[in-house]
Amino acid sequence: MSGPQCCSNPPTLDPSAGSGHVEQLGGLTTYVSSSSDSKLAIILLSDIFGYEAPKLRRLADKVAAAGFYVVVPDFLHGNPFSFENADRPLPVWIKDHGTDKGFEEAKPVIEAVKSKGVSAVGAAGFCWGAKVVVQLAKYELIQAAVILHPYIVTLDDIKAVKVPIAVLGAEIDELAPPELLKQFEQVLSTKPEVDSYVKIFPKVIHGWTTRYDDEDDGAVKSAEEAHQDLLQWFVKYVK
User: Fold this and answer.
1) 29-50 tens-digit pLDDT
2) In terms of Cα–Cα distance, which of 70, 10, 60 is closest to 40?
């Protein structure tokens, strides 16, 4: 995961970003956005830059406005990847931020959400977070999954998924190239019991859905399209 795409166009983190609030949930500091007393929850799992990324929180607010209770936990424990920390290049940083740990920490978050009266939970993961979401989907701990420009998600992972899953990928992606996503699609086509959807967005790079350049109209449009696909998937399956 040391490729440059994983780190391209990093966000300027802002702890006050978004129209929601921050609270403790399931043992993790969590950004929460909800426009109503919704009984349907969505968990957004960040990439390596963490839960203070403004565009990720903006997306959380957008999903909340559609009637969901949206949570963005800090699975990175206040220690997102930073280029400024020369002592912790990405291969070193990632050793302390394994997705297996993220999977275990997601379980109490789901329980905490359910304790609020939530009846169904969906989860979307971006890059690093996608691997955690796939793990949750294997064990049916969520009702629906969306993974966006995934990191280290394997064919065996996809074979084991048991809930409806949408895969949104980039045409220009060294971590999840279109060839791999087409293999995902092929595997999922052999699982009629699991509704699935694989879409490759042209002319965009890994990370584009939350790290797009505001000055690039094409990237903005593609990101908005992906956000709408994500939302429609959850409206369909988290109910």
Assistant:
1) 999 999 778 999 999 999 999 9
2) 70
Strand ranges (DSSP E) for 19-80? 21-25, 28-34, 40-45, 69-73
In angstroms, the CA 5 to CA 24 distance is 32
Residue 11 phi, psi dihedral angles, 5° rounding: -75, 155
pLDDT of residue 1: 46
Angle in degrees, CA 175, 97, 51, rounded to 5: 85
Beta strands 165-172; 28-34: pairing state: unpaired
Tell me what pLDDT residue 3 has: 55
Q: How far apart are CA 153 and CA 142, in angstroms?
A: 17
Q: Which helix (H) or strand (E) holds 91?
A: helix 90-95
d(Cα 213, Cα 133) in Å, to the nearest integer? 26
Rounded distance between C-alpha atoms, residue 96 and residue 109, angstroms = 20
SS3 56: helix
Core vs surface per residue 69-92: b (16+ CB within 10 A) or e? bbbbbbbbeeebbeeeeeebebee
The pair of structure tokens assigned to 100 is: 């297996």
